[in-house]
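Convert to structure. Protein one:
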Amino acid sequence: MMTPKAIRGWSFVHKWSSLACTAFLLMLCLTGMPLIFHHEIEHALEEGEWAPANPGGPLLDLDQVLAHALAHRPGEVPVFMSFDEDRPVVNVTTAPTAGSAEGLMHFASFDRTSGDLVPAHEGGVMEFLLQLHTDMFLGLPGMLFLGAMGLLFAVAVVSGVVLYAPFMRKLGFGTLRLAQSRRVKWLDWHNLLGIVTVAWALVVGLTGVVNTLATPIVGLWRADLVRELSAERDGGGPVAGGSVHGAVELARRQVPGNWVQFVAFPGTGYSTDRHFAVFLQGDTPVTKHLITPALVDAATGRFDGIRPMPWYAKALSLSQPLHFGDYGGLPLKVLWALLNGATIVVLGSGLYLWLRRPLAATRARAPGPQAGAAVAARAEGA
């Protein structure tokens, strides 16, 4: 049994960690709700906007698509090639040289059934919500700030769980005192939903923290990859030519059960001067988020091995879909949405309970606004 001093200490931690992050957590939950269904929403919004020139017809090979792309950007060289998952579209990035800065690169999409340009995707409400949810339009500082809020959220959840038992010892689990005052009723709903969603809240909160570190994690992986690949550069400048289609097909044969996410051409920061780096992803709901670079010699067409993702990049890749419930199709997304809605209620009710706390209890205790929280305040007869 915890001592009164320990309870006061945990209450202090819970109250202030909750109050510091509640407003931002509410924003993240509200923007996160439509993002859970972003694939379904984007598919619905895109219906009728674009269709391939020859639906169901034969596909151009990747060398033919590349020829169309270079014809649109004479004098430039290919840097990257990527692929849409649900439509026959190839995206080609070109630049004046293979080592050009990102600001000099040009991105265009091509219909693989005809080689025609595909209209550029207009930024819509989903992109606005994603940016707000990811970094509040502040870039890396915004991401790191939201990561700090996620850590406070985790502290609030854990401290709430610690406080739950001593504060609820006089009530049965799930008790709803509906005949009591409005504040007591909200307190009981806050307690019940908070403790029921605690595991989900921790998972989503901590994966969110990992996601806010995406930029430094990807930067570290890129630096490690470049350092490893630099030993294999021949110093003679990027190899021109070579069949990107042949490289992709060879990589897929050598690493079966994978799909191609994108290709880095020779001389870029993700390949050597003489290799196509073909980045493969798995074909299951879990492995599709794990990327394996395979190297194919552009001059000889020889397969030169793979470079597995390091553990920290795997952690990032696996946390992103888990954060949005993107592993189990629509049923899991519906469950995620229901739990997200419950968390919104917990956050809102916790804030209400703190604002409407009894004057006599203000100095001693104040139920905080998150899961399992101070969830209980003895003042209500708990």
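Protein two, convert as well:
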Amino acid sequence: MRGMRMRTKAIMKTNRELLKEGIAALEAAGVTEARADAERLFMDLLGESRAFLFLHGNDPAAPEEETRYREWIRRRAQGEPVQYITGLQEFMGLPFHVKPAVLIPRPETEQLVEYALELAASLPAHPAILDMCCGSGAIAVATAAALPDAALTACDFSGEALQTAQENAVLNHVEDRIVFMRTDMFGSAGPGTEGLSGRRFDMILCNPPYIPTAVIETLDIPVRDHEPRSALDGGADGLHFYRILAEQAWQYLRPGGILLMEIGYDQAEEVAGLLSAAGRYDHISCRQDLAGRDRMIACRRTD
């Protein structure tokens, strides 16, 4: 019996060996950020920081952790995003639950929130802010956390997305300042609901689906095969939802209210043209992201 225990102990992998195995498996699968992904999966599995490995790299990995880690590595090797595997993503320094029903929040959208906070300085006290196409709730929750005097409304057509957004509001302790509504853009999402009829906002934020339908098939596997297509597909030219915003958003803005949207890097001229043609907006401007690409369009409803 003693000999059996010694043999079992001898084949137990250390944390460092298990991580090395994960990195090798992801490299063999052609994962671009193999080391970073393997490390993140390992750290999220243990609930520890990266520095943990330097202190405990030679500790034996627990059998249940070894089994789970190998399963996570298998899923990542098949293209599933790390965030869906762990169920977590940080956004604006806040934790968010993410599921296949919602897009994974991205750094470019953090810049949208940062821009919104700049623009919010010109709004009245206790501003009413709408997050349209809220998905995981990243924009609404981060904005509510940064503007404690603001009242947020978050809308999405997907019931699963709204449920995830509500969970994230609770997770970040802002659930008492966000109203969640299921809408089809500004209209009713079904019988017995009124949508946003009669409501007015000081600011409308939106990161809509904006990828042209035909382009989706060319995207990387983690996006194409795992993120919700309904949150990616912006119609034949990618502008379907911007047309709705240009034609209707002004009706839900108070005079002088701000409309701020995330856009595809090559859509600035077309989206600005839609807003100009609507005749309801002025101060139309584009801001670039940190990579120098057109990323955000802002405008104000005319008085």
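The radius of gyration is 23 Å. Residues 1-10 have pLDDT under 50 and may be disordered.
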